[in-house]
Design goal:
With about 130 residues, this protein is α+β, with helices and mostly antiparallel strands. The protein has one domain. Helix 1 crosses helix 2 and helix 2 packs across helix 3. The radius of gyration is 16 Å and the shape is elongated.
Length: about 130
């Protein structure tokens, strides 16, 4: 766990962003991390050929079904339908942030992709594959 105090690098900037965005400091950090994943996604290849190890996932969000393929060896994910179709993300959380931002721009995209995405074959969260739950 990260502890912030007035001697922490960037502490003042985090407080300024918290005030500007009307968020708590931990929410600011989450938003910045999500932004990092979105930025990284823009710098990664936009397409990857499906492989036998890929796991079909989906989520119904904001009234729309978003489908994707999770790639266990790299923990990357490709969204396979809708406005983000074909986009490759470095993590399920990056894909989650992109889906939330696209489908519901007024909502902060903070959150875990492991709990967001549903394994289509089992109906369990993606976390069930990650930890064998």
């Amino acid at each position: 766990m990260i502890t912030l105090d007035s001697s922490s690098p960037g502490y003042r900037e985090i407080l300024l962003l918290a005030a500007a965005w009307n968020l708590s400091p931990p929410q600011v950090i989450g938003r910045l991390v999500d932004h990092y994943y979105l930025t990284q996604a823009e710098n990664t290849p936009t397409r990857r050929s499906p492989e036998p190890s890929d796991v079909a996932v989906h989520r119904i969000y904001a009234g729309q079904r978003v489908e994707g393929l999770y790639h266990p060896p790299t923990q990357s994910m490709t969204i396979t339908n809708g406005p983000l179709s074909g986009r490759l993300y470095r993590s399920p959380s990056g894909a989650r942030a992109a889906a939330v931002t696209t489908l519901n721009p007024g909502v902060a995209p903070n959150g875990s992709g492991w709990d967001f995405w549903i394994v289509t074959a089992t109906g369990k969260t993606l976390r069930s594959i990650r930890f064998g739950i």
